[in-house]
Amino acid sequence: MLSFNSSNIVSKTRTIGRRMFLVSSFKAIVVVGILGRLAALQINQFQKYSGLSDKNRFRETQIAPPRGIIQDYFGKEIASNEKIYQLHITPEDVPNIDTLFFKLKNIINLTEEKVFLLKRRMAKQKRWDTLIIADNLTWSEFSRVNLFLHELSGLRPVVSIARVYSNNASAHVVGYVSEVTPRDLKNKTYLQDLRIKEVAVGKTGLESLYDRQMFGTPGYLRFEVNAYGKKIKQVSTNNGEKGKTYRTTLDQDIQVHAADLIKDVSGAVCVMDIYSGDIVSMVSSPAFNPNAFVHGIDEQNWKDLISHRDKPLLNKAISGLYPPGSTIKTLTALCALENDVFTTKLNVECTGYIELYGERFHCWKKEGHGMVNMRKGIKHSCDVYFYEVSRRLGIDRLAVTAKKFGLGEKVLKGFAEEKAGVVPGTKWKLNQLGKNWYLGETLHSGIGQGYFLTTPLQLCLMTAQIANGGYKLNPRIVINDDEDKNPLLNFLKFRNENPNDSASIDDQLKRFNLEPLFRNQENINFIKESMFAASNEPGGTSYGSRHNDKKFIFAGKTGSSQIKRFTQEQREAEVKQSDIDYLERDHAWFVAFAPYQDPKYAISVLVEHGGSGSSAAAPIAKQVIQKVIERDEVRKAFISQLGEEV
Amino acid sequence: MFYSRASIHTPFSFKERFFSIDFTLLFSVLILGVISIFAQFSSSGGNFDYFAKSHAIRFGVFFIFFILISFINIRFWNDYSLLIYASLVILLILTKFFGVQSQGSRRWLNLFVFNLQPSEIMKIGIILFLSNYYHKISTNDVNKLKYLLFPLFAMTIPFLLVVTQPDLGTAILIFFSGAIITWLAGVRWKIFAYLTGLLIILAPIAISFLKPYQKSRILTFLNPDVDPLGAGYQIIQSKIAVGSGGLTGKGFLNGSQAYLNYLPEKHTDFIFTLFSEEFGFIGSALIILLYATIIYRITRIGMLTRSIFAKLYCFGFASAFFVFVAVNMAMVLGLLPIVGAPLPILSYGGSSMLAIMLGLGIAMSCNIYKNTTI
Predict the structure, then answer these.
(1) A233 and A375: one domain?
(2) Domain ranges for chain B
(3) How many other C-beta atoms lie within 10 A of the C-beta of residue A372?
(4) Are B281 and A42 an interchain contact pair (Cβ–Cβ within 8 Å)?
(5) Interface ipTM > 0.95
(6) Which residues on A lie below 8 Å from B299 (Cβ)?
(7) How far apart are the C-alpha atoms of B326 and B296, rounded to whole Å?
(8) B-chain residues within 8 Å CB-CB of A30?
(9) pLDDT digits (tens, 9 = 90+) for B129-169
(10) Separation of alpha carbons A387 and A205, rounded Å
(11) Does residue A334 share a domain with residue A207?
């Protein structure tokens, strides 16, 4: 019994020992495995998990930096920032939200509707996230709230900054800012990383074009948060970088003056320095108040703006497309001279109309102009003369000249709302409309009707390039300090300092890297002289709006672009523009440059449905020109002052 | 069994007995206990009053308990193992009916002074009982069907009682503790193979009985990114905490994952994660070294002790202890699904501490009475 027992113990011990050895080996493998896993996580993948841990731990609240300022040429602020008074709450810190709203209603203007919207917004966010109760309080409201603050627990009065625009005159070109929308986020990639609620971003004009630069670099408040997102403590702050300030070429005084002149009509005025290409003024009418958008425009105001007959939100200077009308005759004539199709001396008889291709083409003057040469053709804006010129010229040669002078393409690169317009041609028509060109359409195009479409700024550029002697301009509206100096200005300076330089014009062009738009500068000079005649000689189309003071004398060309062609009956009945429906009246144009003896500025004026250029547009141009020339001395003085500072 | 009782008597003095304590084992446990108090201090965000205080008291009390039971003759445990096992089964049944309900499961018995979790004690009870069983039967009988069914029955009863609490993790560990004894006793490979095969066949049926949260834990383990904010959250956050600890850790009380509440259950199942975040790879390796020392010393006692009961008990307890540690670590490191298994000594929890200290005490008793035959 005992022996059996001892042998039993021995065999059991052996079995147990053997199996324990196996188990122990297994344990050793598992320990190595766990240590390996620890090493993999803590040593090999330390960077990855450390990053993930910080991502867990820190939350950043971005703060919007002050937006960059938009200045006029003289540094006056067109768009700047102002202090605004806001009320914020953190819902979890408010003991009773309904009581707070109830009390606030007695102190500030807080509608039931607004309270509803706020509550809905509050339900969507975390209880410790800030909610803006009032965005833009007046000082008196704000001080009243501060007075009762002890009764409004949880409410935080905050002084913040917001955009403010000095006037409505530059509303179109400068644009406006408003609360960011999902569409902005889609279109502007740089906004996609932004995590600031209700931030204002540029919607139109320069505000939109330079939005990224003017926005600046957002700052942040970095918090440590727990697993539920509650802020534990503030770790660090960064105030970000203020947005870039832009100085424009605009003159605020001229802007206001021009806007005032066209405030009763629908239209646009553009003024350009003919050597530097600086856009001195660009206004569109009717204007709107850009400040209304900053804190969210109310619905009624918005409805009024978008349903208005004259489209106040449209920047007509660059986005309005109109046939150029008779203003194009300057280019038609120039084109004919440059291509040796016509001479200045050649006469055409105007009897009030011509019959061509089985169709009757009328002159604006029913009784006709009699024998007309080119100078007289421009001066009186004789349609029959230009029918003949364009018939011999053909549309495609005219199109080349028109494009050369800047028609059919955007003047200011980058403006989303700018339109390119149309310079028609045989190929263009085939491509766009799939039809062949009719010869009759050449005649309409030659006097700026038909398919031609231009913006006021394009015609201003065209006039400027004629006025400066036919040199290509690169128009600008914003001054970048790192820009190369305009070659045309260098050339001008050289000519002023060396009036007797004997070098040929070709050599000079090459030396100053200029791009001439002419073959023979005499042709340009002839057009300028003819425009002078149109404005300053009796019988000229804009003679009535001439300046007598030598300082202000300008040379210009009127134009009226047809909306609807006159019927034979209307023509016979001599129906006046003022007698037909407003929306069917012709658009009135006037382009000019001044002063005639020493041209400095080009101007274009458009009056929508104004009837004729001479009666509606030229008188406005006359007054704008006077202002521009007066301001020229200030501008020159400012440049020399800047020069001294440098 | 009459022979063992009659033949040997252990007349050695208290001094002799005291110096036969395995001091390496004792101090390893003590160091781990001190570390655990600091870890609990950190888990309550540097506050001693919350978990750390009660953990420290428990450790102190149970550590003395551990030393005291070391001096109880190993025969006592052999003689009363059936009684202990039967009492624990009764306690489990009582828990079924009178247990304290918490977070959807009924695991605790209210004993007025404290809440006892009998399933934790059962982890030791099953080892004791089966060691005694295999001590008694002859080597030739181990693989006979009659002698196989009984241990299987003894393991299944507590397993079923615990799994329906429900507490899958503890139930598996109880079953596993039992299985390891049968394996050590010499039950054939083949039988384990058959049972494993049966388990695989029955697994789909078993899964259908699982609670939805248990199912999602298994699915989450297979791919934690399926639901990173839901069921996968624990594994992901635990891995981030461990990984971001790096080589030397973020420093005591600086574990941001734990401090900012990203880490769930950080005072119980995820205490190792917390420690690992604050003390890095070096600290974690030290903990593993301490556990390895404990397991090694218990195994060594098993080799030195003479009786089969003591051998089986020590090897079984060492293996079970190893499994508790390994399962918990593998779980928080994302190597096993989250099953709810505490880490011995480090985790907060009285019953778990009691069970481990009881187990250690009996192992120590095996060392003191290593020449005692049964």
Answers:
(1) no
(2) 12-368
(3) 23
(4) yes
(5) no
(6) 20, 24
(7) 14
(8) 322, 326
(9) 999 999 998 888 888 888 999 999 999 999 999 988 888 88
(10) 39
(11) no
